[in-house]
C-alpha cells in the first residue's frame, strides 16, 4: 500500500487522530514494539541522493542504532514488555515487492555514481553503503548482532527503567517479518484466559501495514509512534534534526475507531441492514477493502488509487452492499465469497465510470449520452450553439445537398418524393438558411417532389460573391452538426451494442497491454487463472494478518491485477494452502537481490548472478522496464523483472552450499527469539562486543533466555473486542476520545489543513453540540479555581484561574470571591483575536466546529508532581512555556473517567523506606553541593550518609572562554552596520539573508549571504542574532560583508540605486545584459566559496555556542584533567531528607532551574544517555513545547556521546532535558532555603548506554569504567581548602584536631559537621573577591542565597566581569566555620576586582568544588 498516501488520506479524512508528543503528556504504555528495520535504515545510511557523502563507519552505525532504540524507549517507557523485532526471512509472497525495490535501488545508485563521475565529482574512496543489505532475512554481521545483545545487557544491568519490563529481541535468524512477529505475539497474548482487555500498546512506525495490524488487534488502547511526516517540498533541508529535537507523533487508533464508526453511522439505524450492527466486524471489512488499493503482496486494482478517492468510493459502495448481505464479508480473517461477489459486482460498475472518463471526447459516447438524456442533452447542445440532425439527414446532406451548394453545376435539385416529414422540415430549414428557394411539385402519378432552386441573379459578380460566402457558412455548420437519432428503438439498441463493444475493447486493451504473453484463443483461460490467483491472494493476506502465515511458498505470479469486474471469475479458486517451509537466509537473499548487490551474499554464489552460463542468469537482468501504470511518482512504477522459480533457484544453489565456510553455514541457519531479564543475584563480567570501542560490563545482572510465545494449544484466537475493554470516554487516562463532549458528525468538503495545505477531499467534520450554553461567561465563572481538562480531544489536566469575555476579566480575590476587571480597548481587541484563532484552529486543523467563542478560560497547566521538604508529592499547577493558557469555555471537560496514576498525590514515605541503606543520591547542602553520596543509617529522624568530598577546587574556565570569545566577536545592531557601511537598512537586510535577482529566462538567483533567516526564525551561530530591538551582526559577519563589497563594488553600487524591497532584474544592476549575466555568475561562484550554507543555523530563541568555542571548552577541560580530581569519603550525621536528591526525584525537584551558557552541571538521573554523576558544561539551551533541552559537552567520553552536530569532540556531547541536570554554577535548590524556586516536573526524555569510561574508535585507547575505591579510603579526612564566598567552607584539619567547644549550629543552608554535637572551632580569616555593585557580597545566614530569575543572568555576567574588572569593590569575606569540621573560619573582605562573593581563606581549608570521576562506596556504584 502506498504508505505516505494512505497516511495522508487517513489524516485528512479523520483530522484529529495524531498527537504531537510533549514529553509526559502522552499516555502510559504497557508494551512497546519496535519494527527494527526502519530504525536500521535510518541509522546506517543517509536518505539522500548525494553520492559524495562519506560512508558511515560501522561503530557510528552501532551507536546510532543504540541511541535510536533508547530514545524511543525513553519516550514511551513501557511498563511490562519491550519487544524489538528484526525482519527474518519473509514469506515467498513478499519477495515480489522486495525484489522489485532492490533491483530499482541498485540501478538508481549505480546511475547516480556514474553521473557524478561524468560530472567530475570527487567520490569517497571507500565503497558506498548498499542499503539493499537491509533485507528480510538479511545476514547481520556478527558484530552487529553481538553489539545489539551487548547493548541490551548493559542497559538491563545499569538502567533502572530497563529492569522492569521484559525485554525481547527477535532477530534476523527468526523467520518472519518484524511487524508480523510482533502481531503474532499480540495474537497469542490475547488468546490467554487472563488477558487484560485494556493493555496499552505502542508500535513504532506508520507503515499502512502497521495501521491495519493495530486495528485488527481490536484492542482499543493502541497507538502508533513515528517521526513527524512532511509532505510536498521540505523547504529546510540544511541539516537533519538531532534526535532530541525531532518531533514524534502518536496516531491514536482509539480515535481512528471512533471516526470509522462515524463513517458508517447510518448503518447503526435499526433496520438499516439485515443483521445487527457490529463495529468490530465493520473494521475487519475496512481492512479487507484497504487491500484492494494495494499492499505488500498484491498489486492494487487498476485505477483504484488512494489519492484519487478509491477508499472513499469503496466506503459508499460498501454501505449499499451491506444492505443486500446477510452478514459481513471478512469473517475474522476468512473471506465470505458469496458476499465478496456482491461487493465486487458493485465495484465493477465503477469501471464504467473509468471507461467513460477516458473516452469522454469520443463522438459515439456523446451520442449515446444524448440518446439516454435526449431532452437535457439537446438543450445543453443548443445552448452551446450546436446543430443537431439525425443520421439519415446527415446522409442526405453529405450525398446530395452539399454537392448542390458547393458545385452549382445545376440550377435545381430534385430530392424526390421519399422524404418523411422530419427530413422535409430539415431541408426546408436548410434552404431558408442558405437563401435557396424550395417548392413541392407533383409528378404525373400525383407524388410530390421537393425541389431546391437557386434564385435568379441580377448582378452576377456581386451576387456571386455573397452567395459564395453564405454557402461556406452553411457548409461549415452542417459539416460539424451533432448526429443524434432521436427516435427508434433500433437506434438505441444499436448504440447500446456499440457501447458494450467499446467497453469490452477497452478491457481487452488493458490485458493486451499488461499481459502480451497471453496466447491468442487462450484469453479467457488466462484471465480465469489471473483472477483465481488474485482471490487466493486476498485470502492469503487475510490469513497472514489474522492468523499467521498460511503458506510460505505461495505468491502472486503476476505484475498486475485483474480488472475489478473480472475478479469474480476467480471466486472458484482453491483456497486451501500448504504451509511449506521458509527459505533459508541465503536463499532469500539470492531471490531478491540484483547482481549489483552481490557483495551482500557469500562469494560462492556470485557466479550464479553474473556468469553468462549460469542456469539462473535470467533471474538477474541488468536492464528492465519500468511501467508507471497510472502512478505519478517514480518509486511507484512497476519493475518488470522475471519472478523467481523456487525449484530452479534451489537446484542451482545446492552445489554451492557445500563450499560455504563454517561461519557462513552457521549464519544460514534459523534461531530463536531471546528474552532479557534483570536479576540482582546474577553478577558477572560481560565481554565487549567490540573490544577496541566498547568496554566490558564488569557487573552484568542480565539473564538471557529463549523467549517462548504465549501458548495457544487448546485456545482460540479472540475475535473482536475483549470483554471489559474500555471505549470512548471511558478509555484509560491519556487516550483521547471525541465522546468527552457531546457532538454530531458528517462528511463534507471542509478544506482541513493537516499538512500545511488545504485538503481537496472529504473530511469527517465534528460539530460540538450544546456549546451555546457552555460558552456563556456565567457558566464559565462558576468553574473558577476548579480542576478541569483542556486540549480536547487530547485532554490534559489544568486549573482554571481566570475567565474572560469581550468586556471583562473574572478572577478570584483573596477571599475566594469573583472579582471583575474591565477591559480596555487593547484587551477587547486581543480577546477577539484569541477567540477567532481558537475557533479557526479547531475548524481548519482539527475539523471540529466549536461554535462562536463568547468566553475564554485561563488555566494553569498541571506541570507534574513536586516533592515537599517533608517528602510528600503534590500536584503543581503553573504556566508552561510554549503551551496555551487560554481555552474556549465550550471545549473544557470537567471530569474524566480514569485518573492518570502518574499524577496522584502521595503522602511522604517513612525515611527508611524512601532512603534505604546503601541507596545513592546527591547532596544539596552548600558544602560539596552536587556531590554523590550513599545512605548509611538514620539518627533522630535524619540521615547518616557517606559523602564523596572533593580534595581540590575545580577551576572556573568556561565563563572565561565564552567572555573572551564574545569580546573578540562583538555584535552590532543592524542599523549601525548599515550606517558604517553606507548601505540602506533594507538593502543590508536583504544582502545578509536572501537577495534574489532575476536572470535570463526569469531564473531567480540568490546573491545573499544567508546569515539570517527571518521566515524560518533562524540565526547563524557566530554571525547573527536577534534581540528585542532587531537583528545584530558580529564582527565576523561585518568582515564578510566588507569583503563582499570590496570584491564586487559595482554590484553594491547597483544595490544602492535600487534599495526598495522589490525583486530586481540583473539589468537593473548592470545596464549591459552581457555584463550583467557574467557578473551574476561570478558573484554566485564567489558565494559558493564562502560555504555559508554549511554554517550552523539554530532557532532564534536558542542559545548556543559555536563549534570553535565548544571545542575550546572541551580542550580546556582535558588540559585541566577535571576527571582526575580525587575525592575523599566523609561521613555526615543529622542530614535532613530534603538535603538529599534521589535520582528518581530529579524531575520533581529540578524543574525550574535556570541555566546559562558556560554553567557547570552534573547529571543526576538514574536513567539516561549520560552516566550518572558525569559533569560537563552547558554549551546550548533550547526549548521544545514543554521541555527545556540543554546541549552539554561532558568532561570525558561516553558511549552515547555525540558531536552535538559537529560542534564538539566525538563521544563528548549530548542533548538532555534540564530536569536531569543539577546546576553547579548557579545553585538554586540548596537545602534549607525557604525561598526555593518552584520545581517543574517534566519527565526526562531519553536514556541510553552509559559508562564511566572513555569511548574511542580504533585510533585511541579504550578507557575502562572507573573502579570503586576501597572501603579503607572512606576513613580518611580531607585536606583543607579555600573557603567559598557565602561563608567559606573549611575541611578537616590536617592533624584532625578540633577547636574549643561551642554550641552546635542549626542546620541551614550549609551542611553540618561530622556530628551535630561536634565542638565549635576557632575563627578563620578569609579573603574574598566580590562584584562591584553587590556590596558585601552574599552574607552568611541559614538561608542560602539565590537570585531572583531576572537577576540570574545579571549575576552570571558579573561573575565574568569580576574576573576582568579592576575597580570593583571587594565583597565581604566568608564567615569562619568549625575547625576540624566542614566549616571554615570567618573571612576578611577581598581586594577590588575578581569573581563573585568573598572567597574565604580558612585555617582548616576545604575546597568547595566539583569534579568528574567520583569515589562512592562500592555498594553505590
Describe the structure in your own words.
- There is one protein chain.
- The protein has 37 helices and 50 strands.
- By secondary structure, it is of the alpha+beta class.
- Among the domains are: 387-480, Ribosomal Protein S8, Chain: A, domain 1 (2-Layer Sandwich); 674-706, no CATH class; 770-900, paz domain, CATH 2.170.260.40; 911-954 and 1125-1271, SH3 type barrels (Roll), CATH 2.30.30; 958-1097, no CATH class.
- Strands 1-7-6-5-2-3-4-17-20 form a nine-stranded mixed sheet, sandwiched between helices. Strands 23, 24, 25, 26, 28, 29 and 30 form a seven-stranded antiparallel sheet that branches. Strands 43, 46, 47, 48, 49 and 50 form a six-stranded antiparallel sheet that branches.
- Helix 2 crosses helix 3 and helix 11 crosses helix 12 (337-358).
- The longest helix has 27 residues, at 92-118.
- The protein starts with a helix and ends in a 57-residue tail after the last helix.
- Residues 1153-1223 form the 5'-3' exoribonuclease 1 SH3-like domain.
- Residues 1350-1359 have a biased composition (Low complexity).
- Keywords: Cytoplasm, Exonuclease, Hydrolase, Nonsense-mediated mRNA decay, Nuclease, RNA-binding.
Amino acid at each position: 500500500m502506498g504508505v505516505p498516501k494512505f497516511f495522508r488520506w487517513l489524516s485528512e479524512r479523520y483530522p484529529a487522530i495524531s498527537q504531537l508528543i510533549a514529553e509526559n503528556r502522552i499516555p502510559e504504555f504497557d508494551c512497546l514494539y519496535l519494527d527494527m528495520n526502519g530504525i536500521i535504515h535510518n541509522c546506517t545510511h543517509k536518505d539522500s541522493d548525494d553520492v559524495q557523502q562519506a560512508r558511515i563507519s560501522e561503530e557510528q552505525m552501532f551507536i546510532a542504532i543504540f541511541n535510536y532504540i533508547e530514545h524511543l524507549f525513553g519516550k514511551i517507557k513501557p511498563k511490562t514488555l519491550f519487544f524489538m523485532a528484526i525482519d527474518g526471512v519473509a514469506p515467498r509472497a513478499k519477495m515480489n515487492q522486495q525484489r522489485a525495490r532492490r533491483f530499482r535501488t541498485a540501478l538508481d545508485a549505480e546511475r547516480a555514481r556514474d553521473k557524478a563521475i561524468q560530472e567530475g565529482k570527487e567520490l569517497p574512496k571507500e565503497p558506498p553503503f548498499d542499503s539493499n543489505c537491509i533485507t528480510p532475512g538479511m545476514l547481520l554481521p556478527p558484530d552487529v548482532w553481538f553489539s545489539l545483545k551487548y547493548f541490551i545487557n548493559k542497559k538491563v544491568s545499569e538502567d533502572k527503567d530497563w529492569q522492569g519490563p521484559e525485554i525481547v529481541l527477535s532477530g534476523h535468524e527468526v523467520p518472519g517479518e518484524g511487524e508480523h512477529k510482533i502481531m503474532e505475539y499480540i495474537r497469542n497474548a490475547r488468546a490467554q484466559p487472563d488477558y487484560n482487555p485494556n493493555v496499552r500498546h505502542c508500535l513504532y512506525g506508520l507503515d499502512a501495514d502497521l495501521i491495519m495490524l493495530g486495528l485488527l488487534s481490536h484492542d482499543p488502547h493502541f497507538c502508533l509512534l513515528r517521526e513527524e511526516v512532511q509532505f510536498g517540498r521540505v523547504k529546510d533541508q540544511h541539516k537533519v534534526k538531532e534526535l532530541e529535537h525531532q518531533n514524534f507523533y502518536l496516531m491514536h487508533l482509539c480515535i481512528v475507531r471512533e471516526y470509522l464508526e462515524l463513517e458508517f453511522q447510518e448503518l447503526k439505524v435499526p433496520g438499516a441492514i439485515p443483521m445487527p450492527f457490529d463495529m468490530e466486524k465493520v473494521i475487519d471489512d475496512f481492512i479487507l477493502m484497504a487491500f484492494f488499493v494495494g499492499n505488500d503482496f498484491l498489486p492494487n486494482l487498476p485505477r483504484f488509487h488512494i489519492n484519487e478517492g478509491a477508499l472513499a468510493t469503496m466506503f459508499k459502495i460498501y454501505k449499499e452492499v451491506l444492505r443486500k448481505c446477510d452478514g459481513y464479508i471478512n469473517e475474522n480473517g476468512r473471506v465470505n465469497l458469496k458476499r465478496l461477489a456482491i461487493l465486487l459486482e458493485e465495484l465493477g460498475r465503477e469501471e464504467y465510470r473509468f471507461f467513460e472518463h477516458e473516452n469522454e471526447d469520443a463522438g459515439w459516447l456523446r451520442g449515446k449520452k444524448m440518446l439516454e438524456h435526449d431532452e437535457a442533452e439537446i438543450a445543453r447542445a443548443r445552448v452551446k450553439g450546436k446543430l443537431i440532425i439525425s443520421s439519415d439527414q446527415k446522409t442526405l446532406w453529405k450525398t446530395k445537398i452539399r454537392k448542390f451548394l458547393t458545385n452549382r453545376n445545376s440550377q435545381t435539385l430534385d430530392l424526390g418524393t421519399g422524404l418523411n416529414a422530419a427530413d422535409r422540415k430539415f431541408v426546408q430549414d436548410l434552404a431558408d438558411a442558405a437563401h435557396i428557394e424550395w417548392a413541392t411539385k407533383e409528378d404525373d402519378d400525383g407524388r410530390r417532389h421537393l425541389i431546391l432552386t437557386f434564385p435568379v441573379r441580377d448582378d452576377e459578380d456581386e451576387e456571386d460573391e455573397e452567395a459564395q460566402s453564405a454557402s461556406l457558412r452553411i457548409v461549415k455548420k452542417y459539416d460539424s452538426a451533432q448526429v443524434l437519432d432521436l427516435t427508434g428503438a433500433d437506434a438505441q439498441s444499436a448504440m447500446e451494442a456499440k457501447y458494450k463493444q467499446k467497453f469490452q475493447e477497452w478491457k481487452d486493451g488493458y490485458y493486451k497491454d499488461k499481459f502480451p504473453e497471453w496466447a491468442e484463443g487462450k484469453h479467457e483461460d488466462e484471465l480465469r487463472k489471473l483472477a483465481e490467483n488474485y482471490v487466493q491472494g486476498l485470502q492469503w493476506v487475510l490469513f497472514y494478518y489474522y492468523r499467521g502465515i498460511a503458506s510460505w511458498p505461495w505468491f502472486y505470479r503476476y505484475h498486475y491485477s485483474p480488472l475489478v469486474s473480472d475478479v469474480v471469475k476467480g471466486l472458484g479458486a482453491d483456497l486451501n494452502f500448504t504451509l511449506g517451509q521458509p527459505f533459508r537466509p541465503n536463499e532469500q537473499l539470492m531471490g531478491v537481490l540484483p547482481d549489483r548487490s552481490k557483495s551482500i551474499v557469500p562469494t560462492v554464489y556470485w557466479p550464479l548472478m553474473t556468469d553468462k552460463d549460469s542456469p539462473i542468469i535470467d533471474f538477474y537482468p541488468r536492464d528492465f522496464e519500468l511501467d508507471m501504470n497510472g502512478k505519478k511518482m517514480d518509486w511507484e512504477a512497476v519493475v518488470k523483472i522475471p519472478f523467481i522459480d523456487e525449484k530452479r533457484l534451489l537446484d542451482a544453489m545446492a552445489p554451492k552450499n557445500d563450499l560455504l565456510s563454517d561461519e557462513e553455514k552457521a549464519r544460514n541457519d534459523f534461531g530463536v527469539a531471546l528474552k532479557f531479564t534483570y536479576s540482582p543475584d546474577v553478577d558477572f563480567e560481560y565481554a565487549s562486543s567490540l573490544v577496541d570501542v566498547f568496554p566490558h560490563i564488569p557487573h552484568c545482572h542480565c539473564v538471557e533466555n529463549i523467549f517462548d510465545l504465549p501458548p495457544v494449544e487448546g485456545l482460540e484466537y479472540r475475535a473482536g473486542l475483549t470483554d471489559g475493554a474500555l471505549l470512548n470516554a471511558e478509555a484509560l487516562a491519556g487516550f483521547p476520545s471525541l465522546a468527552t463532549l457531546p457532538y454530531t458528525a458528517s462528511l463534507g468538503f471542509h478544506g482541513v489543513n493537516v499538512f500545511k495545505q488545504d485538503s481537496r477531499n472529504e473530511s469527517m467534520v465534528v460539530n460540538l453540540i450544546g456549546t451555546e450554553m457552555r460558552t456563556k461567561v456565567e457558566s464559565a465563572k462558576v468553574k473558577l479555581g476548579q480542576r478541569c481538562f483542556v486540549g480536547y480531544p487530547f485532554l490534559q489536566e489544568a486549573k482554571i484561574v481566570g475567565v474572560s469575555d469581550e468586556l471583562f476579566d473574572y478572577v478570584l480575590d483573596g477571599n475566594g470571591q469573583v472579582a471583575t476587571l474591565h477591559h480596555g480597548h487593547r484587551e477587547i481587541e486581543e480577546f477577539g483575536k484569541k477567540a477567532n484563532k481558537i475557533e479557526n484552529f479547531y475548524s481548519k486543523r482539527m475539523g471540529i466546529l466549536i461554535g462562536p467563542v463568547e468566553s475564554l478560560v485561563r488555566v494553569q497547566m498541571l506541570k507534574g508532581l513536586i516533592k515537599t521538604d517533608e517528602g510528600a508529592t503534590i500536584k503543581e499547577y503553573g504556566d508552561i512555556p510554549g503551551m496555551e493558557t487560554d481555552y474556549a469555555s465550550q471545549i473544557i471537560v470537567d471530569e474524566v473517567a480514569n485518573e492518570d496514576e502518574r499524577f496522584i498525590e502521595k503522602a511522604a514515605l517513612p525515611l527508611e523506606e524512601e532512603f534505604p541503606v546503601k541507596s545513592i543520591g546527591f547532596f544539596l547542602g552548600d558544602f560539596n553541593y552536587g556531590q554523590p553520596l550513599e545512605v548509611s543509617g538514620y539518627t533522630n529522624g535524619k540521615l547518616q550518609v557517606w559523602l564523596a568530598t572533593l580534595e581540590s577546587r575545580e577551576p572556573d574556565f568556561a565563563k572565561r572562554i565564552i567572555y573572551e570569545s564574545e569580546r573578540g566577536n562583538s555584535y552590532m545592531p543592524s542599523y549601525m552596520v548599515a550606517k558604517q557601511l553606507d548601505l540602506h537598512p533594507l538593502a543590508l537586510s536583504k544582502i545578509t539573508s536572501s537577495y534574489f535577482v532575476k536572470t535570463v529566462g526569469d531564473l531567480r538567483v540568490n546573491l545573499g549571504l544567508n546569515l539570517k533567516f527571518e521566515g524560518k526564525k533562524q540565526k547563524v551561530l557566530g554571525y547573527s542574532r536577534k534581540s528585542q530591538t532587531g537583528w545584530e551582526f558580529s564582527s565576523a559577519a561585518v568582515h564578510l560583508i566588507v569583503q563582499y563589497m570590496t570584491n564586487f563594488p559595482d554590484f553594491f553600487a547597483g544595490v544602492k540605486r535600487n534599495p526598495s524591497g522589490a525583486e530586481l532584474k540583473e539589468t537593473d544592476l548592470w545596464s549591459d545584459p552581457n555584463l550583467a549575466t557574467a557578473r551574476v555568475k561570478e558573484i554566485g561562484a564567489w558565494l559558493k566559496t564562502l560555504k555559508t550554507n554549511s554554517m550552523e543555523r539554530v532557532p532564534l530563541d536558542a542559545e548556543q555556542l559555536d563549534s570553535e568555542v565548544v571545542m575550546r571548552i572541551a580542550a580546556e577541560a582535558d588540559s585541566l584533567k577535571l576527571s582526575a580530581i580525587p575525592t575523599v569519603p566523609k561521613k555526615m550525621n543529622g542530614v535532613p531528607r530534603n538535603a538529599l536528591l534521589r535520582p528518581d526525584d530529579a524531575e520533581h525537584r529540578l524543574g525550574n532551574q535556570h541555566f546559562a551558557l558556560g554553567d557547570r552541571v552534573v547529571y543526576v538521573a538514574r536513567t539516561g544517555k549520560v552516566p550518572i554523576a558525569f559533569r560537563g558544561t552547558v554549551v546550548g539551551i533550547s526549548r521544545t513545547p514543554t521541555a527545556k533541552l540543554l546541549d552539554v559537552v561532558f568532561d570525558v567520553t561516553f558511549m552515547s556521546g555525540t558531536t552535538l552536530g559537529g560542534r564538539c569532540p566525538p563521544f563528548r556531547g549530548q542533548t538532555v532535558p534540564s530536569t536531569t541536570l543539577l546546576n553547579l554554577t548557579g545553585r538554586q535548590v540548596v537545602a534549607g532555603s525557604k525561598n526555593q524556586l518552584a520545581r517543574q516536573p517534566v519527565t526526562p526524555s531519553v536514556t541510553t548506554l552509559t559508562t564511566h569510561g572513555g569511548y574511542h574508535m580504533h585510533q585511541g585507547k579504550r578507557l575502562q569504567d572507573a573502579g570503586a575505591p576501597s572501603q579503607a579510603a572512606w576513613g580518611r579526612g580531607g585536606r583543607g581548602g579555600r573557603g567559598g564566598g557565602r561563608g567559606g567552607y573549611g575541611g578537616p584539619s590536617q592533624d584532625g584536631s578540633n577547636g574549643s567547644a561551642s554550641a552546635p549550629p542549626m542546620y541551614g543552608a550549609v551542611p553540618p559537621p561530622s556530628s551535630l554535637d561536634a565542638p565549635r572551632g576557632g575563627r578563620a580569616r578569609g579573603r574574598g573577591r566580590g562584584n562591584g555593585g553587590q556590596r558585601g557580597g552574599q552574607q552568611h545566614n541559614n538561608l542560602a542565597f539565590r537570585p531572583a530569575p531576572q537577576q540570574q543572568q545579571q549575576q552570571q555576567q558579573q561573575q565574568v566581569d569580576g574576573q576582568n574588572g579592576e575597580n570593583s569593590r571587594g565583597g565581604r569575606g566568608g564567615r569562619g566555620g568549625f575547625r576540624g569540621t566542614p566549616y571554615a573560619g570567618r573571612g576578611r573582605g577581598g581586594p577590588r576586582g575578581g569573581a563573585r562573593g568573598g572567597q574565604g581563606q580558612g585555617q582548616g581549608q576545604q575546597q568547595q568544588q566539583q569534579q568528574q570521576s567520583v569515589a562512592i562506596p562500592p555498594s553505590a556504584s
